[in-house]
Amino acid sequence: MTPAPTPNRRDLLRGLVAVAALPLAAACTPGPSLPDPLEELARAAESDAAVARAAVARFPALAAQAGAVATNRAEQAAALRREIDRTATQTAPSTTAAPSSAPPVPDDQATVLTTLVAALDAAQKRAAEVALTVPSYRAGLVGSVAAGCASLKEVLS
To answer: What does the DSSP 8-state code read for residue 93?
Structure first.
């Protein structure tokens, strides 16, 4: 019977590298995908646009102001959805959510205005937070959403 060959230093080093690489390989495998941070912003924009459209229908005196909110927030939602879909096609199938039903519209004009201003304020703050966490090519879009919300709050005041 022939004795087993003794491993040389090169064989030992290869074995050590292979063992050390296993945790790295496991860390590089994709885990569960996180939701796109723009998804929350898009849903909020869609909701705000729906409330503003309902306000236009219910309170004709708010047509100009609420109409501007509805148009602009719908455009923001569409731009956010395009970006979400663009990046989703690069990484995974699209997860674009179907628009949910519109939230209820308050019964009086003053409350509608207060509701819209509060929603725009929340959307502006959230967009500013998200802009700090996304890559620079997305931060421009998110920053413009925040600026648009600030402008729309002025339209309502």
So the answer is: S
